[in-house]
């Protein structure tokens, strides 16, 4: 099987044309990006509002219940309802995007809500004591602190979309899922395995990129990462300690001019 997979991947005809790997990969990435952007625009503000005000928690619970809905069944149901209303070549693409958005909303909504809701009340009180309005507290205090959970929800939603977009190929949506659907129809096992491997690689690479983004976006003070100490910092620390002398054993340290 491995030899057959390598042979399929090495075939130049599988890397050119509208059905080649680069074209299918581009379609898959495009669907994923569009879906995630729409879901972020809907779920993140809503989840932040629920976490900030404490109202509408039932929205988060209801959205999480959507995870129990079979993806393929929801895909066919919305395609049957919405598809006939669209008189264009997008008759199958738009229903698929709708389903992908619906499935991407729950992790984003939960992540943004949980992140904002878990902010220490003392931080909110301190911000209000400085004269910040409610919107300023949300955008300048709560959202930065909630960033780790929010980005974790983003990673989960993105992987969910990548996986479900593969199933959506069953209703004429493009992407890497076409290799699985077409391979199953033609009983071409190497093509099916190649499609599965490519989807898995795309998911791994995407999650790795988002993990790097999360590492650089989240403040070290929030993430708990230790900052590196350079030679200059060590020298400064040594000179500071050199200027500290104990007046007597067990007494408090006293800093003398010129280290004396």
The helix tally amounts to 11
In N-to-C order, the SSE pattern is: HHHHHHHHHHHEE
**Largest sheet descriptor:** 2 strands, antiparallel
What is the CATH superfamily label of the largest domain?
MetI-like
Mean pLDDT across all amino acids: 81
The count of DSSP E runs of length 2 or more, i.e. the number of strands, is 2
Brief overview, please?
The chain has 260 residues and is an all-alpha fold. It has helices spanning 2-10, 21-53, 57-65, 71-82, 93-117, 121-129, 134-168, 177-186, 189-217, 220-223, 231-242; strands at 244-246, 253-255.
Structural topology:
Blueprint: H1 2-10, H2 21-53, H3 57-65, H4 71-82, H5 93-117, H6 121-129, H7 134-168, H8 177-186, H9 189-217, H10 220-223, H11 231-242, E1 244-246, E2 253-255
Can you walk through the features of this model?
Keywords: Membrane, Transmembrane, Transmembrane helix, Transport. 72% of the residues lie in helices and 2% in strands. It is mainly alpha-helical and 260 residues long. It has two domains: 21-227, Orthogonal Bundle (MetI-like fold), CATH 1.10.3720; 229-260, no CATH class. Strands 1-2 form a two-stranded antiparallel sheet. A hairpin with a 6-residue loop joins strand 1 (244-246) and strand 2. Helix 6 crosses helix 7 (134-168), helix 7 runs parallel beside helix 8 (177-186) and helix 8 packs antiparallel against helix 9 (189-217). The radius of gyration is 26 Å and the shape is elongated.
